[in-house]
Amino acid sequence: MMYYYNFTVLNMIKRLLLFMLVFALIPVSMSAQELDAATLAKRAGRKNLTIKEWNTDAKSKTRWLDRVTTYDSEGRKIEQIEYASYGQKWRETYEYGENGRIVQEVEYDDRDKPKSIRKYEYNADGTKKKQYNYAPNGRLQTIKVFEYVIGD
Predict the structure, then answer these.
(1) CA-atom Rg of the chain in angstroms
(2) What pLDDT, on the 0 to 100 scale, is given for residue 152?
(3) Is 130 left (phi over 0), alpha (psi -120 to 50) or beta?
(4) What's the whole-model pTM score?
(5) Coil, strand, or helix at residue 34?
(6) How many Å apart are CA 84 and CA 98, to the nearest integer?
(7) Rounded to whole angstroms, how far apart are CA atoms 68 and 82?
(8) Which of 32-36, 123-127, 137-141 has the largest mean confidence?
């Protein structure tokens, strides 16, 4: 019986050491600090870009600005404005953290007054962890938690 016990303990120790070795070898660079290659390539093509989308009424041929999206020198979306025939419907601004991911979005109404503020927290793999929703006065209203379930 003692022999079986020692064998089981040794197996557990071996497994623990193997587990620790595997995680020690995972590069630190795989953290949320890095963006994937596809995201970086997309951003490279959008540096200092402004996209204007126009609508045209089929009958009257009247044309109006529908949306303007603006990107910064790093190709990150920093502002998006939606218009109607009468003017601005809403506007959103985006702020990024050191890791290149969105940390805050502010939504403005048609009179350009803040309507809502969203702040984000990320998991180590770069996926969204939590979204904090604030009122314009800065009061926390809700917290959204993201759960990722992989199907069979």
Answers:
(1) 24
(2) 80
(3) beta
(4) 0.72
(5) coil
(6) 35
(7) 7
(8) 137-141
